[in-house]
Sequence to fold (785 residues):
Amino acid sequence: MDLAASATASDRLDFSADDLLASEEGLAPLLANGVRCHGGFDADGRYRSPRTRHRTPAIRAWQERLLREGGELLQVAPELVPPQYPNVAQSKLLLGAGVRDPIVRALTTIAIVEGFGAIIRDVRVPELARLVREPLDGTAAAHLGRGLFEAHARDEAGHRDEGGHKQMWEAARDLAFESPRIPPDVLMRLLGRRGAGRERRRAFPSLDEALEGMLATMVNVLVIEIFAARTFEWGIALLSDPEVSAKPAEAGAMVSYIRSDESPHVEYLRTALSELRARTFVTCDGQDLSGRQVVDGLLHRSLRVLTTSRPAEQRAETRSSLADAMKAAGARSGLLEEFDALETPFTPPERTGFESAS
Amino acid sequence: MRRATRLSRALRIARAGVAIWLIYKVPALLRRVFRRPPPDDLGPSHERAARVLLSAALDLRGVVIKVCQVVATRSDVFPPAIVRELKQLHDAVPPKPFAVIREAIERELGKPLDAVFAAFDETPLASASLAQVHRARLHDGREVAVKVQYPEIETIVRGDLEEIRRACRLYERLDPQPLELLPLLTELATHLALELDFRREADSADRVREIFADDPSVVVPRIHREWSTSRVLVMELVGGLKVTDRDALAAAGIDPADVVQDLMRVFVRMILAAGFFQADPHPGNLFVRRDATHGRQLVLLDFGLSKELPDGFGMGLFELMFSMMTWNEAAMIRAFRELGFETRTGDPSTFVGIARRMMRRSDTGRFEGELTEEMTDELFEAIRENPVVRVPSDFVLVGRVFSLLSGIGHTLGRRANVLEAMGASTR
Fold:
């Protein structure tokens, strides 16, 4: 996100929840396939993300302060990001052969998973003043439970009379593929699987459990948000392609709006994690534990899973249903081989860049 | 069923009907004569009426108990005082003598009891409105549960339904503002016909087992089809701890929070994802056990009331639940429509009203992605107060399931997070 370009310079570091949830005024509404969505268009016709009136300058101010005080903003190396599966060429091949279900399923799944992002509002923010040795006044970390998590949740699932990313992905899908039939197995593949969201192995048992829970959640969401860059590239390229999309301009633009809304999520998460990484945690028995050791340890664990086992599982699951989808669509023989030949190769890098703490 | 028995049942039903009618109409008549204003609270009258119904149900059993159980689940139609009183019937059905049960089994299987079973416990494990369950052992040593339908229950059900229908028609003719009871009765008759066919129950058990074929944490007892008929069901005996027994769970090292979350996850998968579900998750039908290989397991019993949802209904429900949990009013209104709710005028403002009511509730306290019993009740209350003329019956059944699950959560002192149960995870 180019925060500098989109924000008004400000030295202000403290904000109320209402401030961080406030949107620009006087925007023309964004209507997508009959659904009123968040955000809107300014007088120049530029899309403006929701709830960024103060949030964007706030994040910029917190980042500047961190750098000014000698801290560093953590970076995830771009080569760690796995490619989208299926990629644009593979998706176009399927659609061209009349095999629509895997793509419609993928878009519907993305919409639902985006909506699930709202669960971040349920993350328990512990009393950080007690658990962090150094003060946190005027930082992003001090604002997590004061508007930042809530703004994130509202962006993902929508709020009140406005749709969020869930509804925007659905609108993009329906625009591009003219309200397609949703494969009936979408929810069966997603919902109610054992282990979903519950059991978590403690990496730092000496740390307050709620603090570790919050940090682990933030780290995972940050990595997922960074990795989603590939999904946005895929969505924009595919849905704005007139060869496969019924409304290429509108559908592609919709995904690009979602992408711009996601930037503040990446930025506030990496800012707050960087702030905490530069501090010292107080363990349950009153000892000091380096913030860097904790944050890097959690990042390493998350990146390891999300660059190795998770993409492999997702690929296997998608591919396992392709043969059936091709058969149901009456696709020509040899299509699966052509599909496989177009796959983007990916070998996860040996190192995540955060090993030192683990 | 003998003619005299049928007549006496009809008279008992009529007596209850008249008593209830008088409970409401005599005070109304007196008020009119003495020109008194209507009472603020009809609660005491509702409680008296519910007690009359309860007494008739315990006398007549069978379909009358079923009717009362259905009433107890329809907080969208009936006042809370009635619903509260009749909820007792979920756990309080006395069993039939063993001689009656033995005769029923032998008639169904065409063999003496000991030709099929090496041992048969005369004391039932459970008794309900239509059938009771006994523990037994087959000659090959396998332990089984035998569910036996009460003799002549089909005829009794048919006769009672006819009498109740007659009473309802009379009530609708006499009362200037009657509750619409006949559609509920038709729905009940449909469910009863399904529940009385144990072959269908066996099919439902197999279907639910198939839904969880990849999930060893869910156990559905296997049916011994060779000894099962439409009135007798012989199934694998699967033990476990009663889902609401906190002490036993603690002694087994099982965290009640995990049990509540498992329950929510399992029913979310059946209802929203598979579109087929066991629709009667009261505590007697749910066990928890610890397996050496698979760890904590949830045992599902009794598939008599199982339901297939129409295509797309699961997705509609998902959208409704999701929008309620994420405070998205516009999406909630769309979901209401997709599910088949209809307003008297077709005006969406009714849905807006219901949605806003739900949203206001969310504003008053932290909601945490939960669908609570209070919230389900609140939704039904909102529907009752607004001119919604069609609430899909499938929705009512699903609402009841989540209400029962939330009740179990209350008993265990734990709450389920539905978003998490759906698979939402930020971890």
The interface with chain B takes residues 35-36, 115-120, 122-123, 153, 157-164, 166-167, 182, 184, 186-188, 190-194, 196-198, 200, 216-217, 220-221 of chain A (CB under 8 Å). Chain A has a mean pLDDT of 92. Chain A is about 55% helix and 5% strand. The longest strand of chain A covers residues 35-41.
